[in-house]
């Protein structure tokens, strides 16, 4: 089962000739979720041959333009392509009104469904049989939220040949996968541990952009597999980061270390930096397993 994120944009407010504003495409078992939609996101989706027609849910972290200006063009393109499936948009208050001004009722070939994100709260935004998406409160100049994508606990896996050996019924299989022992006709009890394997560990990915250094984040992202955390500035500009409520690479790394995450991705780089490798190296001084994101690259969390 796929659990991955592809980077579409890694720049902060000003795009550059090499970097686009923020957007990630998250893939959970071929269900696609767009996280932020900076200017040029649909160009990047086409450039990297990603299946953007399968995007049914878009999460916008906050209403600074570099995180949603690409949404209007994408909405229009979906309609021009004859889309019929509803498109769900999750954002703080204000975006729905802007979109409805541009696309009055009946103008699109499909329906837009809006979901308002509450301010400074951890809430369940989305759920299906495999996945949950919670908000993560961030600390920025305007209301902002990160997103935590987490797989649900799986049922136990039956060992090979158990079904045929015991001639199990469907009802018995379902009960065993839920953890029950098997009782044979002669009343002998076969312990569940002899019949099953433990399921794979649920995977988790967190998206945190934009935010000042905010240690409270740790409680939301403890022990997750993959963390994306903004790193707009190098450490010598930490006063500017504080003033603008952004983070430095070292601050992002401190959050990753405190939270004991598996891997840290950093992005949202200021346009003043032509080469982000030294920012990456600053973060690695604190948290070794750090990578500066590369646009078009897919980061996959493997099953354990």
Give a brief rundown of this model:
The chain has 304 residues and is α/β, with parallel strands linked by helices.
What does the radius of gyration come to? 22 Å
Widest β-sheet, arrangement of strands: 6-5-4-3-2-1-18
The helix fraction, in percent, is 10-25%
Total individual domains: 2
Distance between the termini: 12 Å
CATH architecture of the largest domain: 4-Layer Sandwich
Largest sheet at a glance?
A: 7 strands, mixed
Annotated CATH topology of the largest domain? Metallo-beta-lactamase, Chain A
Query: Can you identify the CATH class of the largest domain?
Result: Alpha Beta
Question: How many helices in DSSP terms?
Answer: 9
Mean pLDDT rating: 93
Number of strands: 18
Q: Spans with pLDDT under 50 lasting ≥5 residues? A: none
CATH superfamily of the largest domain: Ribonuclease Z/Hydroxyacylglutathione hydrolase-like
Shape: globular
How does this model look, in words?
The chain has 304 residues and is of the alpha/beta class. The chain has helices at residues 41-47, 71-80, 95-102, 162-166, 170-177, 218-221, 238-244, 249-259, 277-284; strands spanning 3-9, 23-28, 31-35, 55-59, 87-91, 112-116, 124-127, 131-137, 145-151, 157-158, 182-183, 189-190, 196-197, 204-208, 226-230, 263-267, 290-292, 298-300. The chain folds into two domains: 3-154 and 200-300, Metallo-beta-lactamase, Chain A (4-Layer Sandwich), CATH 3.60.15.10; 157-197, no CATH class. The chain has nine helices and 18 strands. A seven-stranded mixed beta sheet has the order 6-5-4-3-2-1-18. Helix 8 (249-259) packs parallel to helix 9. It is globular, with a radius of gyration of 22 Å. The N and C termini lie close together (12 Å). 38% of the residues are buried.
